[in-house]
Design goal:
Helix content: 40-55%
Number of helices: 9
Radius of gyration: 30 Å
Number of domains: 2
Strand content: 5-15%
Shape: rod-shaped
Order of helices and strands: HHHHHEHEHEEHH
Distance between the termini: 38 Å
Largest sheet: 2 strands, antiparallel
């Protein structure tokens, strides 16, 4: 016996997002009993076969295998967002200066500051007060704060850092979804990791409404992890 019109619609809707309950609702089954209907439909051999055939046909059309899709979800789900953007605390100018005094990057920076001091003194008709270089040179703004710094008390200052996306690992590149300039600054977009985990769980049969569907496909996916 062929599938009924509602069963065909269920198969079509199920392939949209692999959500059996919602597929049943969209296929015009009662919302009150949609979960039970979905479970019954997924245990139907003919419905299972129709879903498998449709999935195989779709995969062949786009020349992509289930394992490739699953691997993409795995990369997204387990990527480290810190590779893309992270908040860090960096040292202040006094953290590593000699005697915890103000530290300059180099002599060029110090001389530039001295020149500004001279110009300001001339404009204000006041004596020149050159800054001190007693703290020495070599300031590195990326070092973590000194825990005993008397100026910042080991807190340094916070800094939001966005990494060069050209240098991301394969997993982080899969997670990265682009960037755009907004009135508030640069907005970094990422794919939904929870959704990726949800998709992995569904294809591995971890949800009750899909525990009976297509054992052949599920076994293939489980073999992928062995």
């Amino acid at each position: 016996m062929a599938l009924t019109a509602k069963q065909k619609l269920f198969v079509k809707e199920y392939l949209v997002d692999l959500n059996a309950k919602q597929a049943a609702i969209r296929a015009k089954y009662s919302a009150k009993t949609a979960e039970q209907q979905a479970s019954r439909l997924l245990s139907n051999v003919k419905v299972q076969k129709a879903i498998e055939e449709a999935m195989n046909k779709r995969a062949e059309k786009v020349e992509i295998k289930a394992e490739q899709v699953l691997q993409r979800w795995i990369d997204i789900a387990f990527a480290d967002p810190n590779e893309i953007i992270h908040f860090r605390r960096v040292c202040c100018r006094y953290c590593f200066g000699i005697g915890h005094q103000y530290q300059w990057i180099d002599e060029v920076e110090y001389e530039a500051a001295g020149e500004i001091a001279r110009i300001e003194a001339e404009q204000g008709n006041e004596p020149v007060k050159l800054p001190s270089d007693a703290g020495g040179y070599g300031f590195d703004p990326l070092i973590r704060p000194h825990p005993k710094c008397p100026n910042c008390h080991g807190e340094g200052h916070g800094q939001l850092h966005i990494n060069d996306t050209r240098d991301l690992s394969p997993k982080a590149k899969a997670l990265y979804a682009g960037a755009k300039a907004t009135a508030a600054g640069l907005e970094i977009k990422m794919h939904d990791q929870d959704k990726a985990l949800d998709n992995i769980a569904r294809h591995l049969g971890m949800f009750k409404d899909e525990s009976k569907i297509d054992l052949t496909i599920r076994n293939k996916l489980e073999d992928f992890f062995k």
